[in-house]
């Protein structure tokens, strides 16, 4: 791994995590300070899947819920039609994020912003950091 010692990699990880936590904290404070915005439900809760769900589980849950809440199925019950439209939009938004690995990586890190679609570079960086951290943990377990 580029000739780095486990201790230098762990030191880098520690520094990175401090920067990342500070960035997340700033984003949280910023979002809390914005008035009038209701808290959004977890995309995982919307689809009824666990955080470690596979893409197949996510697709399966999406298909089931999309069929159940599709607005066309609720035209005979106008009183529930607006609720069905709202739930269907939530289901689609959750699926669009969780089925896209880049968006999901940012979402899981607490950094996904549905308003900002220009996250490709940062998402790649985050995915690489998560991969390196996972690999280093495995190597540290082997050495220990």
TrEMBL record:
Cross-referenced SUPFAM superfamilies: Chaperone J-domain
Domain J, first and last residues per copy: 42-111
InterPro entries in the cross-refs: DnaJ_domain, DnaJ_domain_CS, J_dom_sf
SMART domains named among the record's database cross-references: DnaJ
Identification of the protein by name: J domain-containing protein
Domain of life according to the entry: Eukaryota
Xref: CDD domains: DnaJ
């Amino acid at each position: 791994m580029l000739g780095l010692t486990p201790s230098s990699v762990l030191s880098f990880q520690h520094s990175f995590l401090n920067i990342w936590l500070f960035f997340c904290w700033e984003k949280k404070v910023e979002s809390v300070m914005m008035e009038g915005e209701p808290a959004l439900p977890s995309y995982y809760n919307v689809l009824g899947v666990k955080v470690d769900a596979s893409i197949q589980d996510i697709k399966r849950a999406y298909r089931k819920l999309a069929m159940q809440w599709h607005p066309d199925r609720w035209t005979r019950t106008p009183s529930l039609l607006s609720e069905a439209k709202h739930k269907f939009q939530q289901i689609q938004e959750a699926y669009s994020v969780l089925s896209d690995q880049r968006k999901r990586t940012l979402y899981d890190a607490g950094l996904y912003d549905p308003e900002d679609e220009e996250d490709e570079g940062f998402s790649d960086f985050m995915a690489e950091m998560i991969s390196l951290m996972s690999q280093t943990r495995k190597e540290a377990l082997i050495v220990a």
